[in-house]
């Protein structure tokens, strides 16, 4: 339409021009040409006027829109005058910075950006006439941190000179917060807040690089919580998770700035500590162990946890984190196979305990099926008379190629792979069968059998006891079960089971008393028959006055609660006299007899047995 109008105007102009030429030739008068010039001039200036009017209206509209945009408290726009070096801020930016003035100096704006180098570079680039975009951290007057993506484009005149800059800003705070959350999920354990294994390994390599330059020593500590799965299964995962959170908090209070702590997997933790020497490393390990063995309170329960710790040292045991971890893992497995609740530094040339553990796992099932296990019996003696009143059934394993495997090695492995239930049932049945044979020959002694935590907590445990007693025709009064102090953690359930055992008529002993988790208040409320003082205390009576005092205290506890006390690990007459002097009347140990096979024990029983079926535990209370 516009092009058609222009064509018509050109045609009319041409007609006027030609008419003016013709009129001039005929009359010699220039009026027609002058008229044409006037028409063209009016057209030219008229168009110019209309265009200028339109541009002014457009400019006024744009100005009004810009003013509206700058006044809007939600928009994030700004302009910069390079001559006055003043910056005009929109309402949104004023609110973001916590300002009331709409125009401030460039230096005042820079105060809101902690990264001075970045903001200086930004303004240097735009002053040179270039567009620029940059992500910057912003701190308002109250110290609140935000993130902005700031952009600027130059406004040029017809000669290409920069008049000013118009800029926008986008608030990236939510995006950055999401990124931080995602980064935390990727790098940190959501339960404890500690770094996860992947982040720990990266940070540990950096720590090694720094220590390599400074020639410093580092200690990698791998901590495994003993039988933690039992806490989850018996007390619930909520309790287990609360304990893990508390452990993490205790670790963070113990480590120094620059040290690392991480959750390795469900029940393992990793720590990487700067130490001066091995002695300092060992002291740190003891503090960590003590922090775990101190009681926890979760859901109103007092809970005790033990741990196995393996330690390797940089640069002595390796120059990279993978090698250090492999050796700390070996040391930790050595502890788990031996005794638990202890620590071990890596020893060069030591046996590959991981391979040993795998061998045992693979061998236990076939050993059970091929009857490689056997039961031996150790007498329990009345210290006053020397008479045997009970025997303890002890499980032994002699492997065709691995040889004699200590119970401390294979029992924990059997628990981990679920073989302890069939093994425990077999021991219980065989021990009761053996006692029945002795009774048929006129030998009446108590048969005491060790029960693992997994057996004790099993839903068919009471039914199993009743079935074995019925099957072997044993009077329940001649069966005793030895449980560990760790079972006192789930007091309500343990108490229910113990009361059911007492209702049947079976005796219950607390084994290894003094090294576990018994609460004296709880112990006093249970129908326990015997507490057995662990041999580690008995064998140090004459080496350590504090240990002797502890033994005396254990004996007094038994007297106060009317529970009989039996001492394990008696090796000489001097110990017997000490125990009798302080009121302990029962014991067992190599001084009387090592564990022996049934036939040999039977001969001893024939020569040294009670004159009647009387219960020595009960008789001694009278």
Beta strands, count: 22
Global geometry: elongated
Tally of helical runs: 23
Question: Distance between termini?
Answer: 126 Å
Describe the overall structure.
With 622 residues, this protein is α/β, with parallel strands linked by helices. The protein is built from 23 helices and 22 strands. The strands form 4 sheets. Strands 14-15-17-18-19-20-21-22 form an 8-stranded mixed beta barrel, surrounded by 4 helices. A 6-stranded antiparallel beta sheet has the order 3-2-1-6-5-4, sandwiched between helices. The longest helix has 41 residues, at 31-71.
Protein topology:
Layout: H1 2-27, H2 31-71, E1 77-81, E2 86-89, H3 91-97, E3 103-105, H4 106-110, H5 116-127, E4 132-139, E5 145-156, E6 162-171, H6 173-187, H7 197-214, E7 217-225, H8 228-235, H9 237-254, E8 260-265, E9 268-275, H10 278-293, E10 296-298, E11 301-303, E12 307-314, H11 321-338, E13 342-345, H12 353-369, E14 373-382, E15 388-399, E16 403-405, H13 407-416, H14 420-440, E17 446-450, H15 453-457, H16 461-472, E18 479-484, H17 491-504, E19 507-513, H18 520-523, E20 530-533, H19 535-538, H20 545-561, E21 564-567, H21 573-581, E22 586-587, H22 598-607, H23 616-621
Parallel strand pairs: 12-13, 15-17, 17-18, 18-19, 19-20, 20-21, 21-22
Antiparallel strand pairs: 1-2, 1-6, 2-3, 4-5, 5-6, 7-9, 7-12, 8-9, 10-11, 14-15, 14-22, 15-16
Helix pairs in contact: 1-2, 8-9, 9-10, 12-13, 14-16
